[in-house]
Amino acid sequence: MRRGHRPSQPVSGKPRFWGRHAVASALANPERTIRRIWVTREAAAAFGGFPDHIPTSFAEVTDLARLVPGDAPHQGIVIEVDPLDDIWLADLLERGESNQRPLIVLDQVTDPHNVGAVLRSAAAFDALGIVTQDRHAPPEGGALAKAASGALEFVPWVRVVNLARALDEIGEAGFWRIGLTGAGKRTFNDAIGTARVAVVLGAEGEGMRQNTEAHCDELARLPISPRVESLNISNAAAIALYALATRG
What we know:
The protein is an alpha/beta fold. It has two domains: 16-81, no CATH class; 89-246, SPOUT methyltransferase, trefoil knot domain (Alpha/beta knot, 3-Layer(aba) Sandwich). The chain has helices at residues 20-28, 41-47, 61-65, 89-95, 112-124, 142-148, 163-172, 188-192, 210-214, 233-246, and strands spanning 16-18, 34-39, 56-58, 77-81, 103-107, 129-133, 157-160, 175-180, 186-187, 196-202, 218-221. Helix 2 (41-47) links the parallel strand 2 (34-39) and strand 3. Helix 5 runs parallel beside helix 6 and helix 5 (112-124) runs parallel beside helix 10.
């Protein structure tokens, strides 16, 4: 391990992750390539060592702060990584043919904290994976990985070019596509039935696009108080996944 090396801003353009949960999960993922590690001596002791093939440098807390945005809680460690390989939707759907694991579809949800939180909920309730449109979703990055608390490394995330076509493919695979919206006629609990379910959620504020709604089998609502207009997208996803996990 190199000592006294001051980290600098990268020219590689590769994602940087920070925080002990995100970093530990990345280190444990055989599919993740880690290019570099910067770490304080205290954090390094907590990890108990790193693979010899990864360039690793000791750094001060103030130096690490220059590697992450604003006041991001790096917890004494920052890594630079390659993005994970793409996953094909057909491959993901094939994994779910023999079980009832739900799927989450996000329509133009661009906030990395929200997508990360949805990944965390998907992990907690053993969802099959999440699907987003490639051009209207955040890339892998530190804020998303931190919010996912490790789930980015093992919850499949499929990026598609055309979300409407992807929803058609999801329906053909036997999923009942339920779009969550306050305008839904039935509650989500009443709509889920016994089929495999794909939960479709739109961006906060704008909601699902009309074309996305048209590719759902049903629109349903969560039974929230009229004093609250809507829920955060990640909270709505967690509630829907809980309802699916506990249905009779």
